[in-house]
Structures are given as structure tokens and as C-alpha cells.
Amino acid sequence: MRKLLLLYDFTFLYFISQAQSLNGAYCADVRYINPKTGTDSEYRSIIEVDNNILTRVVFPNGWHDQDEFGIQNIKRTGQVNYTMRGAQYTLKLNKVSAAHCYDGVPRLQQCMGITKKRI
Predict the structure, then answer these.
(1) Torsion, Cα of 72, 31, 59, 78 (10° steps)
(2) Against a cut of 0.85, is the pTM above it?
């Protein structure tokens, strides 16, 4: 079983490195670091790519797009990094299709802030 998973990992990385271009929606693991607030979060999100260029990152309350983060190329490793409004984002494509990106993981939820009860 372990050898099968290792073979699958190498096959996925080979696909990423040999692909002429990535196009469409993909599932990605996202790491968000905001040094000003001390926030360091990891979650899963759907990203959109056009010719190996990141075009949109989908969040529960909207999205980031090229107007905000500029032109960002997906590396052969399937990873892209960008900084926006002082926060650092690292996105890495995973082996899950966009259609099943949230299967088995909690979906992102927008925090609405402190309630009247200060909770």
C-alpha cells in the first residue's frame, strides 16, 4: 500500500512537471501568514488557473484575483507564493479534483466577528 501511494505521488508530480500548461479549476492547500496579527492558518480552497498562471483564489466571502495579487506563475512543483496587503499566501496544488476539494474536510466559513455576548 505504501509503495502504491509513493508511486501515485511521483505520478502526480510528474504530471505537474510535464504538463504543457495547467488550465481550469484545481484544489489547493493554502497557508496564510499575517505577521502583523500573528495569524498562521492552513486550509483548502479552489483556485483557477489559465496557462500556468493563477487567476483566482476562491474564499467563502469572495475571492482574490489578478487585480489584487498580480501575475503569479504556478511552479513545476505545483506551488505558488504571493504577498497581498502584508499577508503571505502559499498555495500548493493537491491530488484532489476541484469537484471533490472539500470532501472529508471542514469547509471554510467566514468569521462574522464578536457577538453581543462577546463570544
Answers:
(1) 40
(2) no
